[in-house]
Amino acid sequence: MIRRTIIVVLLSILITSSSYSQEQKTVQQSAGEAYVRQEYAVAAALYKRIARAKGDKMPVDQWMKMARSYQEIGNFKEAAGYYQQIIARPDRPASAYFAYGEVLRQLEQYDIAKQQYALFSTSNADSLKLKDIAMQSCDSAVLWKKQPANIQIQPLKELNTQGSDLVSGVMDKGLLLMSNGYRSLSLNGRSESNPRTDKRTEQPYYKAYAYQQYSQGNTSMYLRELTPSLLGDYDYHIGPVSLNRTEDTLYATINIQGNDIPVTSKGPANGVRQLQIYQSVKKNGKWEQLTLIPGINLAGYSSSHAVLNSGGNVLYFVSDRPGGYGSTDLWYCEKQADGTWGAPVNCGDKINTVAAETFPTVNEEGILYFSSKGYAGMGGYDIYRVKGERAAWGIPENMKVPFNSGADDIGLILKRNGYEGYLASNKQGGMGKDDIYYFTDPGYFNRVNHVTPSSPVRDRTTAPIAVTDEQPHAVEKLHTAEEQQDKQELEQLKFYYDYNSASLLAESRKILDHIATVLKRHPDWKIMVASFADSRGPDQYNTDLSALRCYAVIDYLVNKGIDPRKLYYNNQGEREPVNGCKDGVPCREEEHKQNRRSELKVKW
Length: 604
Fold this sequence. Notes:
Largest sheet: 5 strands, antiparallel
Distance between the termini: 57 Å
Mean pLDDT: 87
Structural class: alpha+beta
Low-confidence stretches: 1-23, 215-220, 454-467
């Protein structure tokens, strides 16, 4: 399993009193064996069956396993209820207080969680360290919730399912995804009515997908299974998958295949299907067969979540191999002169903790993003950002609210335009187990680097797209009748937006497709994109929102092959309404929509 997902398992089993004692031993054995195999969805249902029959007479260790099983599958409310019953028992273990505190923190009940952590006592040094971090986390989380960044994190509804969905990387024209919720969809000309299920979660296994926005012939989205000819014959979990910058080398995390599983223990869990990292290279437009990367994978341990640094010469990954500091650590290896990868090296204790680190991503030069349970955080996995490379790192910084929540927050990915981002979370209110969330932030790099912009230009220059809000210089020349007609046509067009949104509507994308065709006929033209907001909301917020609308138009045109050096922007906020809908004036929604617009000006 790549990571746990949420699933509710309800088993309604009628057991007569005469048959229960005869059957009970089998249920206990089945529950215990499922728990050892980490089949938490199965174990939770079986232990609940026993608890219904025996109540308080069920041994406390079985109550603990039942509570933890619900916690592992993400049913935090039910787990909290069981831990509450456990701590009321005279035979409660000390660990119950800590486990109860963890669940309460995931439910963002920080005051009560802190009380439970305080009751936890142990002589284990690592556990005491985690206790101190957890209590500090409760105080920090309360403060962070009161001071959230002015960014809206919204679910990406078109990509979320009742399963588990997340973004694992970017492509030139879209996103790399991994999901177990798309298995029944008809993609690449085929669908799976009954996909194989991971018994640990009672959910299908993950597969890798590509989401190509604004693809040819489709004005909204194009979701497809990623390279089925390459990955289609592999079983169990597939993903995450990442690509190098030139997109001719692919790195895939895949479970051990076949029946020859290394023996890791005795009893019901006599082998674990570890994760391994595969590589494929594209030659002459075709992917070569996947091969295990020599030297990185270690028998008996997992290696997963491979991602390259910006230069492509350092590969970071996650592993539970010996030599680490916690349950899973971040490791790296360097590319050698012959193109192979050198021996893995631990990223060190400046970044790794006694807990778990996972899901590294690289969105900026010299910066690593990852998720961890070993630092002060909101609860579950939190996303952190740290400067450095290899084994030399600064102090990891929590991304705070709204990027993090009490639940598991993982995989912060930035598109190459530098202002659109994605992450995954299983927080409350989602559509499925893990959902994909989306945000836009024109001042993202200033925000994370704690820079106060002195002008809109400073905000813009941190983004990779080479556009500017400066006025283009006019050039004196004679223009043909065709040019005059094209100019007039472009300047009459308007693109509208939904309320509080910078997403291009389907009709706007169709118009922009035509505009891109026109601009390719006039490659020397300079285009000014002016965007506006309606009067609702604070002035500065509307100015930022209109900037995002400028970026949306520019980004679309760049993806259509328009030179970004010819594109300029002017974010007007709520200035220059086309009607009387100013602050305090009651207006109909259709009137407000006329002010939520982008316009073009040709500068020649």
